[in-house]
Amino acid sequence: MTVPVAGGSLDVRTAGDTGPALVFVHYWGGSADTWNGVLGHLPAGQATVRFDQRGWGSSRALPGPYHLDQLADDLARVVDACVSGPFVLVGHSMGGKASQLLAARRPAGLAGLVLVAPAPPQPPAMVTEEYRQGLSHAYDSPESVRHALDHVLTATPLPEEVRATAIRDSLAAGAEARHEWPLRGIAQDITRAAQHIEVPVTVLAGENDVVEPVRVLRDHLLPSIPHATLTTLPAAGHLLPVEAPGAVAAALGDFLAAVRR
């Protein structure tokens, strides 16, 4: 379905009717297709919502700004238009930070928050100006994307079709949207907002994630959301939805079972 947002509209894919609905929010460089493998492991009929965020993929033509508050506003519009009952936000990396902002607003119907290798509310010391400038060039070309995928983003080999989709997605953004996250969003401190999150929260971390290491999430996320639980998925890197889709789906199933009680 098409959802009106500031400056245009988002094409949103919905499926299933068994709630709470899972609303998926992809990483910097991802798309709605990032979640294909996870959806393939969910029970038949599970309600799901996914879309390409502003500036990426099918939403590439949407004008800026592309900052986190705008992404959270877009996410709120998607939820309002596509979800009629309880829902769980499932945010990966950049999408996890945007999801934290929306969860902090305490929207009606929000039943829980699943953060998948999320960017923490408080940026760690490693996020220096030099780091951010380097990161801003990760998706400059097919060659740089392949290098990022093979040497930074993943710790396990991806199936060739999945890898090809990740390369396509990482290149499917305008310069302004591509640079907003590494130059500004990743360094934005949203600690005060995160402290307003009241719903159940679970955090999934990759054992070998070098982008958002387990220790960073322990030190820079859990203090802001102290009721959150942290689960480490073995062997995986930063791209948990494509490296370990079955494990992510299983964790979602456990979380849904808990929030339904």
Keywords:
single chain; 261 residues; alpha/beta; Rossmann fold; eight-stranded mixed β-sheet; 11 helices; Hydrolase_4; AB_hydrolase_fold; AB_hydrolase_sf; Pimeloyl-ACP methyl ester carboxylesterase
3D structure, described in words:
With 261 residues, the chain is of the alpha/beta class. Helices cover 39% and strands 19% of the residues. The chain has 11 helices and 8 strands. It has helices at residues 36-40, 68-82, 94-104, 129-135, 142-153, 160-171, 175-183, 191-194, 214-220, 240-243, 245-260, and strands at 2-5, 8-15, 18-25, 46-51, 87-92, 110-116, 201-206, 229-233. Residues 44-243 form the Serine aminopeptidase S33 domain. It comes from Streptomyces demainii.
Give the N-to-C terminal Cα separation.
31 Å
Helix/strand/pairing category: alpha/beta
State the helix count. Answer: 11
Arithmetic mean of pLDDT: 97
Percent of residues in β-strands: 15-25%
Q: Predict the CATH topology.
A: Rossmann fold
CATH class: Alpha Beta
CATH architecture: 3-Layer(aba) Sandwich
Q: Percent range for helical residues?
A: 25-40%
Stretches where pLDDT is under 50 for at least 5 consecutive residues are none
CATH superfamily: Alpha/Beta hydrolase fold, catalytic domain
Cross-sheet strand order for the largest sheet: 1-2-4-3-5-6-7-8
Protein name: Pimeloyl-ACP methyl ester carboxylesterase
Domain Serine aminopeptidase S33: 44-243
Organism: Streptomyces demainii
InterPro entries: AB_hydrolase_1, AB_hydrolase_fold, AB_hydrolase_sf, Hydrolase_4
